[in-house]
User: Fold ACT domain-containing protein from Photobacterium chitinilyticum.
Amino acid sequence: MSGITDLDVLLQNMEPQIREGEFVFCTVESKDYELVARLKPIASFLEDEGMTLVLDEQIAKQHGYSYDSIFKAITLTVHSSLDAVGLTAAVANKLADKGISANVIAAYYHDHVFVQSDKAELAVAALKEFHIRKSS
Assistant:
């Protein structure tokens, strides 16, 4: 099942939904993958400096990990192809116009945008403007 590559179709058909919970970005030096698995990250990325984990805020607190900001995850509920061009840029630009940071993670089926928790509803409203633009 391949995803959609047409940017207009992606923007018109996405239904952004706020995922339950609040998330933080942490880094761990350990390459102890059993520890990482126990932390149940919703995303991870191995960088030269350490492993970045996106964790539920409560799990990060319980394990004493530091973090800078708290985020809500917005799932763009359209099956975007990893080969699609422009979706990340369109979303980031739309949110930037509203003063909202966009930390985007592309997964196999969907893109996920992490925004400041207190701006999540504003972010969803901004993303829904893509529907208004096409309907007009």
About this structure: The beta strands are 16-18, 23-28, 43-47, 50-56, 71-76, 103-106, 111-116. The two ends are 31 Å apart (CA to CA).
